Amino acid sequence: xxxxxxxxxxxxxxxxxxxxxxxxxxxxxxxxxxxxxxxxxxxxxxxxxxxxxxxxxxxxxxxxxxxxxxxxxxxxxxxxxxxxxxxxxxxxxxxxxxxxxxxxxxxxxxxxxxxxxxxxxxxxxxxxxxxxxxxxxxxxxxxxxxxxxxxxxxxxxxxxxxxxxxxxxxxxxxxxxxxxxxxxxxxxxxxxxxxxxxxxxxxxxxxxxxxxxxxxxxxxxxxxxxxxxxxxxxxxxxxxxxxxxxxxxxxxxxxxxxxxxxxxxxxxxxxxxxxxxxxxxxxxxxxxxxxxxxxxxxxxxxxxxxxxxxxxxxxxxxxxxxxxxxxxxxxxxxxxxxx
Length: 339
Description:
The chain is of the alpha/beta class. The protein is 35% helix and 18% strand.
């Protein structure tokens, strides 16, 4: 059960409401976010919802059978829109494009990529300053100093920053310099990190776990929402299967399923999803047609010289073409009426 409270509810009204719900046999958890106050009731007893709905101080009430409550479309039918400021949104009915390198490497690299994004009409730049690497000897990012450098250049150009946070201690120091915190596949079930991201007032994009299910991705989002942060984005980035012909198996089935199950925007990452440069554009366009609200991909001036993931990274010419194809494919998608 989800009970959305009115802003003007009194303490007396809330206490009475909690008592009424508890007497029915539901365990109550209070959730306060940037956008509203909620009571989440967990229980299995049947009751007449009108008995609760008539209480004072209630804005809305819903019965939600899903284990994940707040991110479920059974509660909130209207899609969530993420406002990054300056007229930049990630939302249903639009096509967000995020592009940039796997790793932030230098000031010169940042400037060249920002200039490319501006020329291509892309307003969101992805990149890593804290890099989780399989090998401890691989390049692991420029850290907070690299983020500060990147932020200064991006802000001047009107570019929003999407970057990965790896641990709780990084959240606060990153906060002034990031527009979207990215939770990578390795941290999707780092529940301490998700809890703390629930306390910040900035967007959080959660990537699907390396072998994670759709249900687990939604549960991870529920952690952040229940912690107080409604600014959430889901990202399908491929899962590990027995197939070895590609880096991962990009599960495009997940896109319409997530859109049906949740009100949150859904992004597709074809770079990690297939991991092979020449196939990234096809998978990006397939993601658009599957119903994604945005595409995030990797680009670098000279992919072969990239510090990481060069094999799945597009050069600037390929990136320019892909951005144009994404927009054209999205326009075509909007003209379709599916049965």
